[in-house]
Task: inverse folding
């Protein structure tokens, strides 16, 4: 199976052939995937070198000139390093672009902390008007990249991962999918953590919702999963900073008695490079750790009432 990043390069290269408005801007990283497209469209595949602030600035300029720019590099270099340009050259100027990242939270441990960005979605939450897609499989990445590229002048962030679920699901770039139904709580699994969540909740009486578009947050789906007239235990499992979406869940359930547990990467820096599975376990995002934490959280109210 190809990776999300390989699928992104392949589908975007085809889109360059189909849509003369589309342009790809790179900052040295990822250029190999666009070699053929650059030969066909040298004026619309632009490599600015190792200049991430310029990457976003050029994207903003292309958008103001009527183009649909797709900007790509690692998440730490796409959202964190040029954040001022994301804020001003795109947001302040009301210029739309598609930001497609790779190696988000800990997908390349050998790169060290400079190549990790667990806080990218939380950082974009400080800005207005961003759509955020978090695919969990290459097929979903293709669907969401295509949707983002055709989204007019919107500001869209597509967060690709080196991790993947076993199978893709039919995603529409909007709402959450109901994967499993239960009555003891609701677990929202974001992108590539779905397989671990399904293994963790096997046999538990919980509803599992699958989210590949997290902004806008599908509060209506969460409310429907909770059900009318019921108190709610909600667990959010996100492949980035723990608690990133808890405020959105709280807002969606403002008039419903509820508790929310946010699981994801911790704030403490893991200073040993290790491997991806070791980082997953260290952050408590493996199936065994998730089961322990989800089961304890959803069982607590019943125990308290006993």
Result:
């Amino acid at each position: 199976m190809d990776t999300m990043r390989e699928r992104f390069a392949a589908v975007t290269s085809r889109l360059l052939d189909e849509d003369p408005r589309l342009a790809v801007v790179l900052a040295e990283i990822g250029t190999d995937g666009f070699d053929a497209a650059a030969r066909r469209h040298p004026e619309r595949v632009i490599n600015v070198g190792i200049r991430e602030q310029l990457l976003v600035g050029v994207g903003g300029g292309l958008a103001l000139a009527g183009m649909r720019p797709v900007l790509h590099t690692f998440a730490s270099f796409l959202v964190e390093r040029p954040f001022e340009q994301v804020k001003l050259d795109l947001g302040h100027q009301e210029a739309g672009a598609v930001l497609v990242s790779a190696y988000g939270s800990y997908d390349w441990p050998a790169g060290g902390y400079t190549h990790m960005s667990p806080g990218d979605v939380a950082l974009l939450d400080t800005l207005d008007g961003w759509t955020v897609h978090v695919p969990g499989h290459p097929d979903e990445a293709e669907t969401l990249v295509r949707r983002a590229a055709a989204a007019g002048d919107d500001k869209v962030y597509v967060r690709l991962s080196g991790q993947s679920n076993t199978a893709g699901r039919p995603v529409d770039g909007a709402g959450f999918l109901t994967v499993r139904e239960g009555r003891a709580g609701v677990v929202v699994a974001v992108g590539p953590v779905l397989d671990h969540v399904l293994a963790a909740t096997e046999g538990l009486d919980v509803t599992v919702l699958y989210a590949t578009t997290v902004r806008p947050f599908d509060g209506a789906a969460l409310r429907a999963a909770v059900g009318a007239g019921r108190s709610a235990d909600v667990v959010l499992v996100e492949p980035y900073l723990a608690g990133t979406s808890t405020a959105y869940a709280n807002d969606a359930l403002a008039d419903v008695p509820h508790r929310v547990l946010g699981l994801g990467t911790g704030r403490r820096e893991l200073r040993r490079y290790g491997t991806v599975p070791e980082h997953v376990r260290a952050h408590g995002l493996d199936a065994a750790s998730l089961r322990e934490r989800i089961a304890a959280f959803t069982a607590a109210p019943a125990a308290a009432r006993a």
About this structure: Confidence is low (pLDDT under 50) at residues 302-306.
